[in-house]
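Q: My labmate handed me this sequence with no annotations at all. I'd like to see what the chain might look like in three dimensions before we decide whether it's worth expressing. Could you predict it?
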Amino acid sequence: MAILLGGGCAGTAQTDAPLRIASAANFYATAVQLAEAFETEQGGEVEVISGSSGKHVAQILAGAPFDVLLSADTLRPHLLVERGVVERGETWVYAVGRLVAWVPRVPVHVLSDASALGPLSAEDVLRGAAGRIAIANPDLAPYGRAATQVLDRLGSGMQRVRGENASQAFQFVSAGSVEAGLVAFSQVRDEARGQVWVIPDSLYDPIVQGGAVLSDHPAAEAFRRFLDAPRQRSVLERAGYQAPHP
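A: Here is what I predict for the chain of 246 residues:
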């Protein structure tokens, strides 16, 4: 399986061409895992291209022939419907994301599952951040938009350090450039450093992640069915997502 970072243009929809999936940065690792399983089951080659949902859609509207979009929201797939790029029946919801605050350089708090994250409060996390917090760009990334809602609703005056997407925001925190971050739960699901606080759903609009079939590549619709299969629900949940309601 080929893996591409950033925004390279996609291939064609020829039968022997690889299936090219434009994945939201927060979903990238899970998309790679699913793509590898799809290759094993279905054959063929899959390429996963990581980037912000906004940048992916801008490239699609400019003519980049991706075969499948896995956005971090439903706004971008709906925009493609409005622009006539895809039909409404070619979009669907594949996962529901969750936002967390992560402060890696404090005493370790074991992250085992969502019910065992401990009695942290928003104030605990914000105090530990020493004034700076990394978020994804809210103009490009739905996780950045959710993070902005959280900080605004808490009345936080913390300095917001923006990454282009959820992955870059995570990298700022992981490298120690910023003391804390509001990132995707999937990014810290197996992280042993520091403390993690799952943000209450009441503080931000739901991060409903939508996909779209963009081409007539013979594997595109097959990948959609593969991702929607009940057996993939456990993969999504282990990765820190909620499976959409049937």
